[in-house]
């Protein structure tokens, strides 16, 4: 098991970059005060990892939140993603520049291909490799790539992706994909770790809250970390941002990790990487 220590702990990517294993996701956080306050709250509470994307339309607010926090930019692990309509070599380079401008920074810590688009994503990846070689981004990766997408991409890369960000929760473990990523040095990362709120309806989770005296969210997020998966729960509420990060004074038993693994139904709450139309 990878070592889990505290809110500012990290997993090492295959290029040696330290990626904080816990962060704030800002999907559907409205640009302006909502996302500014969420980012500022998270950073001032001890978070060091913020995940956004061009298609979230809140990069400007994220950048403002970082600047208004008590944390230097160099101490924040900042991720964004290239959207599908910008995929391709030249258009990805332009999209990257546009993201930097909105965020008000001159580099990213991680830049991801947001969704797999076949041959087009290979051109996109070449652009990411260029940005990486130019040291404009510290790490590059993909999002929503299933095993066959990764295998196809790997036939043409110079640099193996450092991260694969996937929908990941007890109803969608995809252990084969996790194992494939681990065996290729690709760090697995969870989006929608709380099943878009559906996790709170599971009786088995309520039983675990009594056993560990922790919230359902804390138990699931701790499970992510114990499985070696970076996780970025989304919240814009101060109390929840603080509570979500209270994960470092307990540990799930191996039996309970396996219990949660066993809930896997292959069920998605988000789009299917093999069948989406955007």
Chart the SSEs and their pairings:
Layout: E1 10-12, E2 18-20, E3 24-25, H1 33-45, E4 49-51, H2 59-68, E5 77-82, H3 89-103, E6 110-113, H4 119-133, E7 140-143, H5 147-154, E8 163-167, H6 175-183, E9 187-191, H7 203-212, H8 216-226, E10 230-231, H9 238-244, H10 254-261
Parallel strand pairs: 3-4, 4-5, 5-6, 6-7, 7-8, 8-9, 9-10
Antiparallel strand pairs: 1-2
EC number: 1.1.1.283
Pfam families: Aldo_ket_red
GO molecular function: methylglyoxal reductase (NADPH) activity
Quick rundown:
With 278 residues, this protein is an alpha/beta fold. Helices cover 38% and strands 13% of the residues.
Question: What can you see in these coordinates?
Answer:
The chain is α/β, with parallel strands linked by helices and 278 residues long. The protein has one domain: TIM Barrel. Helices cover 38% and strands 13% of the residues. The protein is built from ten helices and ten strands. The protein has an eight-stranded parallel sheet. The protein has a two-stranded antiparallel sheet with strand order 1-2. Strand 3, helix 1 and strand 4 form a beta-alpha-beta unit. The N and C termini lie far apart (37 Å). The model has no long low-confidence stretch (mean pLDDT 97).
Considering the chains and any ligands shown, give keywords for the structure.
278 residues; alpha/beta; eight-stranded parallel sheet; 10 helices; 38% helix; methylglyoxal reductase (NADPH) activity; Aldo/ket_reductase_CS; EC 1.1.1.283; oxidoreductase; Methylglyoxal reductase (NADPH-dependent)
What count of domains describes the coordinates? 1
Overall spatial form: globular
Task: Give, in spatial order, the strands making up the sheet with the most strands.
Answer: 3-4-5-6-7-8-9-10
Q: Tell me what portion of residues adopts beta-strand conformation.
A: 5-15%
CATH class: Alpha Beta
User: Please, what is the oligomeric state?
Assistant: single chain
Biggest β-sheet: count, sense, barrel? Answer: 8 strands, parallel
Q: Which ranges are low-confidence, i.e. pLDDT below 50, for 5 or more consecutive residues?
A: none
What is the first-to-last residue Cα distance?
37 Å
Percent range for helical residues?
25-40%
Output the structural class. alpha/beta
CATH architecture: Alpha-Beta Barrel
Mean pLDDT equals 97
CATH homologous superfamily placement: NADP-dependent oxidoreductase domain
Organism: Allomuricauda ruestringensis (strain DSM 13258 / CIP 107369 / LMG 19739 / B1)
Site (Lowers pKa of active site Tyr): 81
EC number: 1.1.1.283
GO molecular function: methylglyoxal reductase (NADPH) activity
């Amino acid at each position: 098991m990878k070592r889990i220590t505290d809110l500012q702990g990290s997993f090492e990517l295959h290029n040696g970059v330290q990626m904080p294993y816990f962060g704030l996701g800002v999907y559907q956080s409205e640009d302006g005060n909502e996302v500014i306050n969420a980012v500022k709250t998270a950073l001032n509470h001890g978070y060091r990892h913020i995940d956004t994307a061009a298609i979230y339309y809140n990069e400007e607010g994220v950048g403002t939140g970082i600047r208004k926090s008590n944390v230097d930019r160099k101490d924040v692990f900042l991720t964004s993603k290239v959207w599908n309509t910008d995929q391709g070599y030249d258009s990805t380079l332009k999209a990257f520049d546009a993201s930097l401008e909105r965020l008000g920074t001159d580099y990213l810590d991680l830049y991801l291909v947001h969704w797999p688009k076949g041959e087009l994503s290979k051109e996109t990846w070449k652009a990411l490799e260029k940005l990486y070689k130019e040291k404009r981004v510290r790490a590059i990766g993909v999002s929503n790539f299933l095993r066959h997408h990764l295998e196809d991409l790997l036939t043409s890369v110079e640099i193996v992706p450092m991260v694969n960000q996937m929908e990941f929760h007890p109803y969608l473990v995809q252990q084969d994909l996790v194992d494939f990523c681990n065996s290729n040095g690709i760090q697995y990362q969870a989006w929608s770790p709380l099943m878009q709120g559906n996790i709170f309806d599971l009786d088995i989770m309520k039983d675990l809250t009594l056993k560990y005296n922790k919230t359902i969210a804390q138990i699931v997020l701790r499970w992510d970390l114990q499985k070696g998966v970076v996780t970025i729960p989304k919240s814009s509420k101060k109390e929840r941002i603080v509570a979500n990060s209270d994960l470092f004074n307990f540990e799930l038993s191996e039996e309970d990790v396996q219990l949660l693994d066993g809930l896997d139904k292959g069920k998605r709450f988000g789009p299917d990487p093999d069948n989406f139309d955007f």
